[in-house]
Amino acid sequence: MNITTGIRERVRRWMPLEDLLPDKLPAFVRSPAYFFGVISLSSLVLLILTGILLAAFGPQWWHNNAAGHFVNSLHFWCAELFFFSMTLHLWLAFFKGAWRHGRGLTWVSGMLAFLAAISTAFTGYLSMTNFSAQWIAAQGKDALNSIGIGAFFNLLNFGQMYGFHIVLLPLVIVVLIGIHILQVRIRGIVRPYAPTVAEERTREALWKGGRRKQARSGAGMARPLLSDQASYYRGLRMMPYDLIREGLIALVAVFVLVVAFAGFLSSPDEPPLTLQQYAQQNPVGFVTTAMKELTNTSVIAQYGPPYNSGTGSVQFIGPLSLQQVAGVTIPIDTAHVYVLDPLAIAAQTDPQVAAALQTFTRAGAKQQAAWEDAYTQALGKATGSNGHVIVPQGNEGPLPAMMDHLLALGSSGALDGLLLRSGGFYQNDFTKPLLFLSEDALPTKAAQFNLLGSQWGVMNETGNYPGQAWLWLYTLGYQVPPYNTSTNADALVLVTMGILTALLVLFPFLPYLNRLPYYLGVHRLIWREYYRDARDAHTVRKVEGASPGPAT
Amino acid sequence: MNGPAQYLHFGFILISLANLLVIVLLIVVFMLAVALRRPEKQRLSTLESLPTPVEEGREAEERATAESEVRS
């Protein structure tokens, strides 16, 4: 057996070129309701091209170079247009019941591509290396941690997210959209709904059963098994169509549109926060956060998996905590990571730091706790002055000296580097500095941009730019009971959205519910000419004395 | 565009002007897509694309089989 010949013949039967690249399509495709698939595809092509440029030149280029920022803006507006047109494409496919007559896989592949696109956009926001990226990482981690995947898919690890964004997820999208387009081309565009449910059910059985019978009877050897458009379109008025030309026109139109948007509106790029800025601009806040880390009273110190065995942020789905099942996989001892270890490094060249640190570490736990209590209380009356935090004198032991040196490390920018160390040379995991900033500095700034969860922040973008409006339902979950009052809000919202998303992906296979578009009736507007022609033909047959047959 | 954003508050709903604009635009474009038609340059005859008597016969046979399947 010649495998090559076998594959070639199978491909030829599955995908005849006349159906893959037809020059005639049903006349109803001249409705703009059929435009948005090709607009999405054009936006994706430009997204990939601009993404390649951004990846080639790197973050410094898109932040600091005018040409780089322009390409970044093109990429941003391509993404906005991609989601805009995908959303419309999805709505219109829904109202057309585009999964009918054996097109379930077309719908499922399109929906999966949409979900992959959301994941890609999400990792894109994380890869922007600006304030939005920091905040989305700090907020989003709770949702992923709540279902136990926060360590595997660590939003705070820029290197991992960047890899997902520029390689893995785009590959998934391209494969899924490839399958989707092949399905559309092989099976053709779905026919309009029949006028009655009974007639539509007959058609459904005819087009699904017809193919099965064809395969069983062996007729499929002579005719294509999957593609049967000549038969499927029988009775429909056709029109000449140039698919490639339409695609090129859409590509040019989308390009002009995104160039205009990028040129006139640019793109959001709020600079990232650094530990250095935090220490310089809010020294009391910086030291207060550091004290919480030292005394294990910070949110992260009590968080729970994947950082430690605390319970402060552990979430449950019913009796089960996937977060606890996943366990501690990114261990962080906040006192050592944020205070004692950086000071130990500074102590190697600074005898004063060494002395203060030695006094603290050699003291008993009770003594340490007494100093910590006294210093924490004193911080309530602290003032910042010339890069120092001044607290009322009391029984604080070596803590004022230790915190003063830690503040100096922060103000100099050294702490930014120290917290990035992971034992190797190349550093791209920002988990530790971002967790420190997420205690106070990030949420304080995020609130100014309406980015908090309670402010519908998932949808919002910095400045006057549109955000992720298509995530309105996900965001809504955090605003209404029981989610907004639950300590398991992230897990519950994710599970709810997961169930709703699965229902949408599998909608074609849900008995009774999958007939919803028929009863909503929007298809009668989309295909109004078709129904008018069908009525006319029906009337003519009646007048001529012939059997009127079905109305379509 | 990078200045302070404008937000609208309706009860518990807080939405930025830009997001509201996108949502309104989605609905408007959806309605236009349903309502509008682009001009048809050339249309093939309806008769040309109607089934031939032989095809009609085969289709009627398939339809009868399918109807009986649906009934059963």
- Structural class by secondary-structure content of chain B: mainly alpha
Main sheet of chain A?
2 strands, antiparallel
Question: C-alpha Rg of chain A, in Å?
Answer: 30 Å
If you compute it from the alpha carbons, what radius of gyration of chain B comes out, rounded to the nearest whole angstrom?
26 Å
Give the H and E element order of chain B: EEHHH
Counting DSSP E segments of at least 2 residues, the number of strands of chain A comes to 4
Amino-to-carboxy terminus distance of chain B: 63 Å
Backbone shape of chain B:
elongated
Percentage of β-strand residues of chain B:
5-15%
Low-confidence stretches of chain A: 218-225
Q: What's the quick description here?
A:
The complex is a heterodimer of chains A (552) and B (72). By secondary structure, chain A is mainly alpha-helical.
Record keyword descriptors for this entry.
heterodimer; A: 552 residues; mainly alpha; 4 strands; B: 72 residues; two-stranded antiparallel ribbon; 3 helices
What does this structure look like?
The complex is a heterodimer of chains A (552) and B (72). In chain A, the strands form 2 sheets. Chain A has a two-stranded antiparallel ribbon. Chain A has a two-stranded antiparallel ribbon with strand order 3-4. Chain A is built from 26 helices and 4 strands. Chain A has helices spanning 3-14, 17-20, 36-57, 59-64, 66-95, 104-126, 131-146, 158-187, 197-217, 229-232, 243-265, 275-281, 283-294, 322-326, 334-347, 351-362, 365-379, 399-412, 414-418, 431-437, 441-448, 472-477, 489-505, 516-520, 522-526, 528-543; strands spanning 24-26, 238-240, 383-385, 388-390. With 552 residues, chain A is mostly helical. The radius of gyration of chain A is 30 Å and the shape is elongated. In chain A, a hairpin with a 2-residue loop joins strand 3 (383-385) and strand 4. The two termini of chain A are 46 Å apart. With 72 residues, chain B is mainly α. Chain B is built from 3 helices and 2 strands, in the order ββααα. Chain B has helices spanning 17-35, 46-49, 53-71, and strands spanning 7-10, 13-16. The longest helix of chain B is centred in the middle third of the chain and has 19 residues, at 17-35. Mean pLDDT of chain B is 74; it is low at 45-53. At the A-B interface, helix 5, helix 9, strand 2, helix 25 and helix 26 of A face strand 2, helix 1, helix 2 and helix 3 of B.
